[in-house]
Fold these 2 entries.
Entry 1:
Amino acid sequence: MLILFIISSLSISALDTPNDAGGSVTLKFSYPFPFISGEIMRREEGKEFERMVAVSPSDTYWIDNSVEDGVKYYYQVVLTTEEGVVASEPASVISSPQWFHKGRTTMLIVVLVVCGLILFFIRQAKGGKGLYIRQIAGLEAVDEAVGRATELGRPVMFIAGIMDIDDLQTIAGITILRRVAKKAAEYESQILMPTSRSLVMTAAQETVKEAYYDAGRPDIFNPNNIFYLTDDQFGFAAGCDGIMMREKPGAIFLMGSFYAESLILAETGHSVGAIQIAGTAMPSQLPFFVTACDYTLIGEEFFAASAYLSKDPLQLGSLKGQDWGKAMFLALIVVGTVLATFGFTIIKDILMVQ
Amino acid sequence: MKRQIPLIITFIVGIVMVVQYFIPRQPFAGLFDTFNRWFLIIAVFALLLGLMNLVRLHANKLRRRNKGWGYSVVLLGGLVATIFTGAKWGIGTGTPFNYIFVNIQQPMGATMFALLAFFIASASFRAFRARNIDATLLLVAAIIVMLGRVPIGNILWNKLPLIADWIMTYPNTAGQRAIMIGIALGTVSYSLRVILGIERTYLGGE
């Protein structure tokens, strides 16, 4: 009688692992009674069961990553109890890869809505509609900083962070570099740019060269002023600090992805009396830059810099779309907070991404 | 063509990287890692470029006896010694390369990191001057958080750690999240501009 109860309460369910690339099956099992040892058995159609893995009473699921897609498998959990050996009814499953990750549906909708808004406003801007963009003090000060360095007869120093060219912040930094370099060329000033990555060095050399050509001063472009220092974080900080102390730049731009070296660089720059403009999307480093620099581009302002400086309507349109995206999130936060206050977590549940 | 080919590559790779996030099956599943591997391979070659640039610059500086040429001697000497010891005796424990790394490079890195403590003190001194209401609020919040995070704060008033935790958990987190939402949207917008070729300054164009 007890054995019959054990068999009836022993269950295993097998399902194709959701949202995967195939080759995987997830097994869930329950055994509401103690046992001495347990095993998961598997067999293919027309073959014998083989032992796959041992299970303990605390195990409730197991993922089999050794299956072939399109093949039917049968699984069984076999337990050895004090009353004897019992086995569950076999459960069958066929593994297959999925075309869409269902856990990321909300993310897809958000991406489509935000991108749709941005594209809509880019289209509007193409149509000639005037777009307002608020003044960003840090970007207004770019020309002033370069001008001041020139007046002092000192070089301009530009640091594009410590990450490689695959980091979006580095690319954003290089777009600002072009504007700074063009202004420096117009003022016949020199720009010093130590880099922490070789690829950033080559991209920056090309950008600065183009800027000097655009300004009509290719003769004063010196590629040796854009040079590689080291990939090492604090080695790079030490190298930059040394350059700051020796060359005493009149203006320092810290634009890119920074980590613990941010304050070391910014404080040294402050100590040599340079006007400093920083921009980063690293929230943890922003307080350091706000404290030690004259102007700081905070997160989205940093990414908006190229649009702001170029005044290109297409780029400004994307900023407008971005602002509408922000308004949408603000509305979601307000509604979600109010609903959550009354115990409804629907917004939070919808926005969860796997 | 010099501009168009990179723009086409950027567009295709950008779209594929977005699509692969939503499609778990092959060939999309492994694309992210594949592209990352390709980038690493390119970066290794670029490292040689950086190394050559470094050697050329400092060799020229040394040859011309430019100001600060002594630093170039140290740099080139260090570079040659490290490469030579690593190539000749390997990089395992007990090798000269490892000795250089553990006894020279690591302590120098740690020294730079340690400087941060002094820089934080000097930066805080400037930031916490009560020049206006905003700076005063910053000062008061900072004092409460600093005192709340050390044992003496609890001795002075046992509610200080609770207030410090409240400041960090609510106003601070709210502020940080607001910035992060802005950054996320800025990233999406900027990425879209790069993918669509609207933003092409990084290629050397306007």
Note: Residues 168 and 175 of chain B are 10 Å apart (CA to CA).
Entry 2:
Amino acid sequence: MNNHLSTSAAGAPQPLSVDSANEIAARLRRRLRAAVKGRDAVIDLLLIALFADGHVLLEDFPGSGKTTLARALGESLAPDPSDTLPSFRRIQFTPDLLPSDITGTNVFDPETRRFDFRRGPIFAHVVLADEINRTSPKVQAAMLEAMAEKQVTIDDVSHPLDDLFFVIATQNPLDLAGTYPLPTPQLDRFLFKVRMEPIERAAELEVLATYPNAPLALSAQEPQVSRAEILGARRAIRGGVAIAAPIKEALVDMARRTREDPRVAQGASTRSLVLLLPALQARAVLAGRDYVAPDDLAALAEPVLRHRMSYMPGVEDPERVVADALAPTLDQLAKAGLRRGS
Amino acid sequence: MTRESVFVRLLHAAAYAAACAIFAAPLGPESTTVAAGLGGFTGSLLGAFASESRLRSRVLALGVVAGGALAALSDGIFRGTYVVADALGPELALAAGDALIFFFLAAGGVFTLRSLGRRHRAIGVLEISVAGLAVAELFAVHRGGAINRPFELADHVLSMGGDPADVFVAVGAAGALIVAILLLRASKLRRGLFHLLAAFLLLGALGSLFPFFEIPIPDVAQTGVGLRNDGKPERGEGEPKDQEQLDFDNQGGRNNEPAPVAVVVFHDDYQPTSGIYFFRQASLSHWNGSRLVHAAEGLDDDVADGFPHPVLEVKAPSSVRGRREVVTSVGMLAEHFRPFGLDAPVRFEAETNPDPRRFRRTYRVASRVLELSDVELLGARAGDPSWDEATRRHYLEAPDDPRYRALAERIVRELLPPDLRDEPLAQVRAITTWLEREGVYSTNVSLPVTDGEPTAAFLFGDLVGYCVHFSHAAALLFRSIGLPSRVATGYAIAEQARRGGSALLLTDAFAHAWAEVYLEGVGWLVADVQPINSLDPPPPLPDADLTRLLGELRRGEARDEILGEDPPSKLPSLHELFTGISTAALSALGLALLFLYGWKAYRRLSGRGDPTRVYRAQLDALAELGYRRRRGETPEAFARRLEAVLPSLGPLTDAHLASAFGGKRRLDGEAIDALARRLREELARDKHPLRRAVAIIDPFSWLGSR
């Protein structure tokens, strides 16, 4: 059957250098920035998650460009001749959705008199899970299992998903009636939880300026990126970007600070630190470096850690907690750098 | 509210303990003083903790009420019931009760003050005034520059041979330090220590100026009992302006605070029959037509005419009948024209001055004091048979005014029974008694302008005057009925001024003039007039402690009892101390500066080509000009912030980070040095040369770079 889904058949990604990984990331970034105006920070986070092999949860209002963003990402992937998977799928989550609606199901084929597996919309490279908190926990669990394991299990048969499988989930932060909020362990499946702020005035005007053309037309000027390139870049980043000992020490110390904070019920977990490492590497590459620098930590600590911690009741400013733990960490890191380099 | 360090907290507590102890010291025995100090210490610590708790300020204010309640409770238990008294014994129970009351009152008050003071700045001001009041309280008794107070300090210091003034200055400085500590709102230990050190060095620097400007000595002429009478020579009622005549003019308003002029130490016990000690210094017996003035050479030879070198015998001593020798030592605190001695001095001997800073002159006098009562003196004839006619006439010379004789005879007739009317002593006593009864003492006199005979104007006028008037009136009345007499000047002081001790402190308020009559075989007999009615308040008796202290100083005992003969001062002089401190401070400062500059130069110049060390050197240069990485800012963010002004900082930062955090692409040394050079050029464009010059001088700049 669909053995082309196995990674080996699709061709092992060529080992790439950090420089070429940077080039790939930069190309993707240019495409996305051309398609979506005023979302540079979100685009960077999206790309970091993509190269760090994580998923992203966007907290946003309808009409803020998230579908455009996800579609632009999907369309940036060059169609692979050996690949039957669509590059982009969107799933609108509703309360009456069933797990099989997203994963696919076994269908009886009267001709062959056998049950054939029909793949659900989750079988795609980039999946936009729209309003993921509107569906039942059962469907959420299936979705999140697929995200964590990169496979779906139907009738005791596991169907692997592609290595590139990348989920952009969204939820509306205000319209909470009739929703099933994601519990913290499930939020943990997302590398980043990104709150999108309204875009700048100039960027908004730019969006309107593109009106007669299709929104994604501009991005077509840049060459697409192949699936193999992305997977190769992931490997290059994982192996080629240095994480110095002081960075790791700073991470541990920062996590300990969050645990000691009286405003925090449960501080940053060890796993969140482990997840942070590839994200730091990815960001370093995006910035054109081959080492993780303090700036990476400063940029990623908040989106990685904030949704993984729980706060004491009555805490009004959870966003300050990470910042408060981060500031002394960065000072410590700068000092360590000055000591270490000489 | 920031947290305080333990050090600052303990300093506060110690300051409060000292303040409470000072307040409590005059109120009770030592046990209560210690208890109050402990209470202040405890209250301060508790208050500091409570101020950080979630208790409301209103609750904290109740601390003073709680302290009062606990004090009342312990009063009730320890002194109101028999329970404790039975267990401890009444004395111990009473002492413990007192101590507990002081402890709780101090603890409660300080608790409230301290806790609220930490929360509200306005109450913090109260804290400071409490400390200031404590220091003021310590010195309140010291006002007027009295060296004998506070006793605990001055006695000890004087006995060690030091100058109490130095110690007072030191205590005042310590008080200022306490206030500074209370003002310390620095919560960090390091900053607290730094402030304290700075205050201490400032004090040291001020103190080292003392040798140039001297510690100010209070003006004794106005402030009374002082360290030493450094004013103009003593000038009392008895000491004439031109040395030869007494002043009949208005003396009113002269008398503010009496200044000490001399201390007299008795070597033999002696109580005068009249209850008053007379110290004769000079005598006036020559009638010049308007008043009595100094007699010519050869007369009044029982008065010393100069200071002894080393011994001065009086040429014409009084007879020995009925007299006994009494030896006294005199220390003059103010300059005098001639020595004086207890009536009647016969021999003066110079004595070594035990404390030249205190005494101007010291000598020893042997006096023959008269111990006969009036009854025993009855029958003595006036004058001396050995006198020649000229001498006799000299002592009887009087104005031609017949009213003197008429008055004197009337007094004798009225006051004396017929059998005593020819008795010279009885006549003397009758005249002085009459003057005492009829006259009114006042230094504020208004004599009518006369033809130059002020005594008559006084005697036949309103009889209001002071000792000069009374002594002249008495002497002239004596002379009018044939009693040889003169006026003597010196000091007269009541016996109770000794207060049972052996020392007498003379102030200028006790300067006096009195009449004397010569009796055969007795010598000059004091015939003083002490008017019953006085418009002036009696002069205050000298302070008993000051008298005792100066007496000990005069005897040289104050030192001898601790250190033996010729004691070197064991206390370092304040000047030396301060000079030492400031020398040490200056050299420490110099060393520190040298170290700072050296380290600064090393950081700036070392490590060419090494990205991190070059980066650090540039960070120092930036910090010097006020560009510092903010807290929580990454080096990259710092570089981005300054990108517009210093575009070369970004690449340099990257080179440093790559080297520090394991990047593989490194810049070579030359490229790094080139970047640093460019950065310096950018800085030079950005900042004024003057600003950069100031920055180079700043020795601390590199401390702020991060």
Note: Confidence is low (pLDDT under 50) at residues 1-11 of chain A.
